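Session log. Operator J.P. requested a structure for one protein chain; no other inputs attached. Running the standard single-chain path with token output.
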Amino acid sequence: MSADELFGEAEAPGIDHRTERIRIETERHRIEGLLTLARDGYRSRVSDVLNASERDFISLTDVTVAPLDGGAVELHPYMSLARRHIVFVVAAEPPGT
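Structure written below.
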């Protein structure tokens, strides 16, 4: 279930953004979720958001969190993640592909 379905939210008309599914690894977790980006220009790339020095956290929706050492996978509609914990980020395949 997506965060939009869970909270009854839909994309508002006139909002010019897009989402990109990314996979983040920290020292202890693999986190996958949707990052909201501007459609064009400023902050339209994942690297723009990751390198924004004025932000200490990035926000994701439709999130899965898996411990790297095994264990139960957690599902969350929303997560804020401190940038300082990020080891690397890659584009993730959409679910079901």
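Operator note: Residues 1-10 have pLDDT under 50 and may be disordered.
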